[in-house]
């Protein structure tokens, strides 16, 4: 005997929209509460979906976390454009990122879980550091320079989002952003 699940009243099921809702709910909760304290049932409730759909779309809580973080780890917007304005462009993109749940907040709050910590380190290396090093160009220092830029980005976003520093909220914020842009540009320029 086959059981069919009928679509919600007044509409049809939309798998892509449901998957997207689950992903956005997970990003919000992982960024606010962390990996270890966020359960799949909480994510499903936030998304207005059945929790069994998390396994269907993401395989597991770890798969959901991976997808939530990877969705934000995009290096292309940073490296597309004029090399001479990389620092300014990077800071402008970080400012946009301040207004939404971030991969960094999700990753920092996930460090309590050893498996999640390893996953986060690997994702940052594969999606940000390596492509940035390649963009910077060959040479023995490209990977170290990419790591320095990534480190500055993480420190800035930590001070703005994860553990907000009051000194980065007032009138001095623009000066800090200019310092960050100049420092990043100096690393790019070698």
Automatic annotation (TrEMBL):
PROSITE patterns linked to this entry: HTH_TETR_2
GO molecular function: DNA-binding transcription factor activity; transcription cis-regulatory region binding
Domain annotation HTH tetR-type: ranges: 16-76
Gene3D superfamilies hit by this protein: Tetracycline Repressor, domain 2
Acetylation as UniProt keyword: no
DNA-binding region: 39-58
Annotated keywords: DNA-binding
InterPro entries named among the record's database cross-references: Homeodomain-like_sf, HTH-type_TetR-like_transc_reg, HTH_TetR, Tet_transcr_reg_TetR-rel_C_sf, TetR_C_16
PANTHER family in UniProt: HTH-TYPE TRANSCRIPTIONAL REGULATOR RUTR, TRANSCRIPTIONAL REGULATORY PROTEIN
Protein name: TetR/AcrR family transcriptional regulator
Source organism (scientific name): Alterirhizorhabdus solaris
Lineage of the organism: Bacteria, Pseudomonadati, Pseudomonadota, Alphaproteobacteria, Sphingomonadales
């Amino acid at each position: 005997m086959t059981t069919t699940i009928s679509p919600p009243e007044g509409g049809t099921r939309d798998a892509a929209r449901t998957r997207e809702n689950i992903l956005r709910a997970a990003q919000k909760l992982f960024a606010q509460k962390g990996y270890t304290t966020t359960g799949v049932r909480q994510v499903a409730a936030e998304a207005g979906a059945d929790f069994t759909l998390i396994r269907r779309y993401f395989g597991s809580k770890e798969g959901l976390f991976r997808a939530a973080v990877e969705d934000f780890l995009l290096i292309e917007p940073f490296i597309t454009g004029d090399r001479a304005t990389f620092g300014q462009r990077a800071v402008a993109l970080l400012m946009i990122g301040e207004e939404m749940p971030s991969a960094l907040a999700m990753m920092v709050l996930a460090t309590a879980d050893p498996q999640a910590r390893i996953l986060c380190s690997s994702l940052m290396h594969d999606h940000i550091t390596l492509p940035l090093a390649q963009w910077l160009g060959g040479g023995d220092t490209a990977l170290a320079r990419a790591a320095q830029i990534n480190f500055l980005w993480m420190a800035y976003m930590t001070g703005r989002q994860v553990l907000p520093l009051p000194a980065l909220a007032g009138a001095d914020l623009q000066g800090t952003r200019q310092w960050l842009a100049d420092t990043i540009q100096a690393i790019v320029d070698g």
